[in-house]
Amino acid sequence: MAISLKKSTIRLSSDSKDRAIALMKSLIRVNYFKNVIPSEIELSRQLRIPRSAIGFAMQILQAEKLVTRSADGQSWTYNVWEHQAPAGKVGFVVNVNILGGWYSVFQDWLVGFEQLMFSESYQTELIYDFISVENKIEKIDKAWQGGVMGFVFASRTEQSLRSHLIHSEMPSVIVGSATIEQEELGCITMNNRMGLSKIIRFLTGQNHTDIGYYTVGLEYHDGFRERYYAYQYEMNQRGLTPHLEMAQSEAHSEISAKRAAEMYYSMPKKPSVIVCGSDREAYELATELKHLGIEVPHQVGVTGFDNNHYGQILEPAMTTIDISAVEMGRVAANYLLNEMQVRQMPIKIELPTELITRNSVHPVITGRKQQKTQVLGVESSQIISY
């Protein structure tokens, strides 16, 4: 069944300048840089945002008197709450350093959460970099004793931690999909099943019938597992055979994509496109396939999931599912504000998803003697409307 493409403006999580402004404001207000902001060159390297956009953002922040340039012009200082004390503090808990690697989705969650909390005069404290679950609990307890009034958890939230939060009566909410197979805490997540349905509907509309799947962490990440099962369901509903050879139960590692690419290379009948559990997996897989002489999208298409910031700026730009990450952060903030007033019934809120088509997939043109691919002819992002 053919699916019509509806042209739209380029759909990115935000353009470089807007992203730089929003992210820098939130990072400054959570004191990520410990009062001294690095140079624009270093910020560009860490944030993967063009230096010109960083420079523009810093001019805006200086005009708003949020930052002051040092005398030598090489760095910035700031004092967010110089003229007004916050009404209270809340904690944003993440297992990783959000400026490391492929963590722009965590950054978007932070931006949405922090923006709304700041508008309500709450200061957000960033809590991260744990060596164990016990260490995470210790840091959360320390923050609670230091006046933090509630927490949002943007990473995998272990059973022992959830039990501790409930026993200690700490207002808490989960954002993201790493821990969604639980009922103790409120959870703000995305509709993984519908997201996978949109990808498969799009691909079959482009005449793809051999559709593979690559993911990692099936034992550790509830959302990846939900997407994995949704892929199988959607394929079976269409009478198509799922290709599960590349799916991996182990947590992500440096060799995950290499292993998947080698598995694809060895398949007697290779899928024409590979759906990946996240944008990170998609780009790592595309890189490893290239090392084997397999070009994306000319020889095989690849799709991601989450509309990661880097998926928009690398080549080829990735067809993916947008999860409205900034909005998820805002919804989590609203939930936590209510939880801090009175204990809420723990519910799971699923935000809708949208399919973003870019250049990592070509349609299959079926001829009498062979199948070949041709360029879709889309130069900018498109949103698929059903």
Q: Spans with pLDDT under 50 lasting ≥5 residues?
A: 1-14, 368-381
CATH topology of the largest domain: Rossmann fold
What is the CATH first-level class name of the largest domain? Alpha Beta
Q: Spell out the CATH superfamily of the largest domain.
A: Response regulator
Task: Describe the structure in brief.
By secondary structure, the chain is α/β, with parallel strands linked by helices.
Task: Give an account of the 3D structure.
With 386 residues, this protein is of the alpha/beta class. The chain folds into 3 domains: 63 residues, Arc Repressor Mutant, subunit A (Orthogonal Bundle); 132 residues, Response regulator (Rossmann fold, 3-Layer(aba) Sandwich), CATH 3.40.50.2300; 161 residues, Rossmann fold (3-Layer(aba) Sandwich), CATH 3.40.50. Helix content is 38%, strand content 17%. The chain has 12 helices and 17 strands. The strands form 5 sheets. It has a 6-stranded parallel β-sheet with strand order 5-4-6-7-8-13, with helices on both faces. The protein has a 3-stranded antiparallel β-sheet with strand order 1-3-2. Strands 9-10-11 form a 3-stranded parallel β-sheet, with helices on both faces. Strand 15 and strand 16 form a beta hairpin. Helix 7 crosses helix 8. The chain starts with 15 loop residues before the first helix and ends with a strand.
